[in-house]
Amino acid sequence: MISKTLHLFNSLGRELREFTPIDPDHVRVYSCGPTVYNYAHIGNLRAYVFVDVLRRTLAWKGYDVTHVINITDVGHLTSDADEGDDKMEAAATRDQKSVWDIAAHYTLAFKNDLQRLNILPPSLWSKATDHIQEMIAFAKVLERNGTTYMLEDGLYFDSSKVPEYGRLGLLNIEGQEAGKRVAYGGKKNLSDFAVWRKSPTNVKRLMEWQSPWGTGAPGWHLECSVMAAKYLGKTFDIHTGGIDHRSVHHCNEIAQNQGYSQCSHPGANWWMHNEFLVLRAESGDEKMSKSSGNFLTLQSLVDRGIHPLVYRLFLLGASYRSSIEFSWEALAGTRAHLRRMLLRIARIKENADNETLQLAKAVTHDAHFQSGGPFTFLIERLMNEATEEERNYILAVDQALSNDLHTPEVLVIMGKILDDPDLTPQAVIRLVALVDLVLGTKLLDTDPDALSVRPLSASISEEAIIQKIAERTEARALRDFSRADQIRGELLAAGVEIKDTTERTDWEWRVTPHES
Length: 516
Ligand code: AMP
Ligand code: ZN
What we know:
Layout: E1 7-10, E2 15-18, E3 26-31, H1 42-60, E4 64-71, H2 87-95, H3 99-116, E5 124-127, H4 132-144, E6 148-151, E7 154-157, E8 193-198, E9 216-218, H5 222-232, E10 236-242, H6 249-261, E11 268-274, E12 277-281, E13 284-287, H7 298-303, H8 308-316, E14 324-326, H9 328-351, H10 354-364, H11 372-385, H12 388-402, H13 407-419, H14 425-439, H15 462-477, H16 481-493, E15 496-500, E16 505-509
Parallel strand pairs: 3-4, 3-10, 4-5, 10-11, 12-14
Antiparallel strand pairs: 1-2, 6-7, 7-8, 8-9, 12-13, 15-16
Helix pairs in contact: 2-3, 8-9, 9-14, 10-14, 12-13, 12-14, 13-14, 15-16
The structure holds adenosine monophosphate and zinc ion (ZN).
């Protein structure tokens, strides 16, 4: 039996703590979702691969999980500092569509990206615009509780009214002085934020609603407090998001939760944050930013020959708490790693018995994540059939996961399993099935050749490649090595890499960082 012991890093208090859910068998998780005014970039997607591993680990531990992701389809401002244009409205102008069409289009694209990355869909998607009245009701309570004040442009939260504002972000707010309202743009404290934003007079916004504070739209932190409490309760287990949310958005969510409930409980017991995926620019690290337009999407990786599961594996190669530097070379390396694993598994499958293959298939089927029950049953069944050696592998994986979801270690163990000459083919298949439940890399269902994705820029057909390789084989047989090298060079120029094995010549598309 897999133990329930699990240590997760809590940003609140900055400590690795043993995880104990409120309900002994059921964990409730809320993840801040995307703002749907553009495609998600591959940095955004890291936040959901991280929470997917968290969810799968909780299921591995035998918990049922209720997971909510919100869709932010209300326009926030283009800057975190309460200024700039409305992002949804700016996108509507840019794409010449209605704000509602913009939201629908990018929501669909986002869900499609998650599916391509084999990320389990949440138990519930909750859309901000479906909850405007509830946000107004929540803000009324904040007002009644004396935690807000009115300014010309809307209703503001008074961050001095809650205990330890900014504890999550370790914000140093000592420099703030009451009475400096001019410097703070009229706000009482620098860290005060809008709960309701009034539309400017004489301006008709594309998205606006009536409220006791004037026609306008909710401030960008309100929706998460409201939807998390509605679907998961006023206190729930885990709240996730990217590291940027630790110092603003989540501090403000906590303040609102405290202002609403009039107690010091932050809402969620665990606040977990993934580090960023960074692009190295000549000037140093640069974060990817949707609003600056400087970003790569999952589709742009696919267009350059990277299969989505390669990107998933690339992310799992680091702890979610380390920042990862993006590079095409590293992705090409990960693709080679995944291909090696898949080829090895394909060979092992040929020697495994049918019953094991069937059982493994049943285990990897996503439906078993809907509830902890059958998942636990299957783990137990596999554990019961396991030899001591297999059990040791499972325990090692469990230990790595229990140490704050340490997936790099799980990948090392997977490598050992695939290379262990003492394991039977049945044992390897059982172990791969089980461990891949958490990794979610579809190791048993992916054809190694499927990893080689045709880049958009490819200028040669698959038939022509095969013909060239045949020509080269013939040239080699005639010991015409200069012709053979020439063909290799031609293929390389067309974006194709070839590799000679003892039996045959394999080929794959080269990862092409730049369209040629
Ligand atoms: P957004 O759509 O901007 O609200 O972001 C969606 C999620 O992606 C949030 O949890 C962000 O914190 C997270 N995020 C944004 N940029 C990055 C990045 N470069 N690396 C990892 N996570 C990110
Ligand atoms: Zn949020």
